[in-house]
Amino acid sequence: MDGHVAQLGERAEAGADVRLDGAPLQFASTAATIREVLIYHKPMGEVTTRADPEGRPTVFERLPAPLGGRWVVIGRLDVNTTGLLLFTNDGALAHRLMHPSSEVEREYLVRVRGAPSLAVLTQLRLGVLLEDGLARFDRIEPAPGFGGAGGDSEAVQSEFKVILHEGRNREVRRLWQAVGFEVSRLTRLRYGQVALPAELRPGQSRLMAAAEAARL
Questions:
Q1: N or C: which end of the chain has fewer CB atoms below 10 A?
Q2: 7-18: per-residue pLDDT in tens?
Q3: Is residue 17 flagged as an active site residue?
Q4: Which of 132, 120, 121, 141 is nearest to 174 (CA)?
Q5: Is the pLDDT of residue 148 over 70?
Q6: How confident is the model at residue 154 (pLDDT cuts 50, 70, 90)?
Q7: CATH topology of domain 31-102+192-207
Q8: Catalytic residue from among 2, 17, 52, 78
Q9: Confidence (pTM)
Q10: Domain coordinates of the chain in residue numbers?
């Protein structure tokens, strides 16, 4: 496309030079698909795939149909993680928002079993070596309004807001596990400039306003 190998999700502008094995391709004129971005509050237990061999419910089952194309998920969440999921019918936009070079921030509310020391929190900020390389939180702070739970040391839980700028598989959970703490609850609050709306209940979705989607 225009002299370079096209990437998955890349779109050709009108008049682009598109070739297959060196031969130019001609396309009929079609109406442009309106870009849509959908905000979804993922509940516990749903998988972020179109079909699941185990028969578990998928996030796509609840979504309204887009005006054109099909929904592409922006940044997956594992089955036990809740919170903000974004979908778009613009593959190029999804690619940009997920590509590591974009360094889009992800913010999570995480609850762990136990009470991490200041040394542990410092280690998580400085970096922990995982099986796929060094990882760290950009920021980590105690979540306001959470006083822990339980009456003994084994039942105590702590809650934090953490921010990182990459989306490796189960990275938040693996970081805590590497320093000896189990995550008991994980919710994504924000992806880039988009925050989970307070009024959006688990399983609900809403279309992003066109002006807001354009800013992405």
A1: N
A2: 888 887 766 788
A3: no
A4: 132
A5: no
A6: low
A7: Pseudouridine synthase (3.30.2350)
A8: 78
A9: 0.81
A10: 31-102+192-207, 105-191
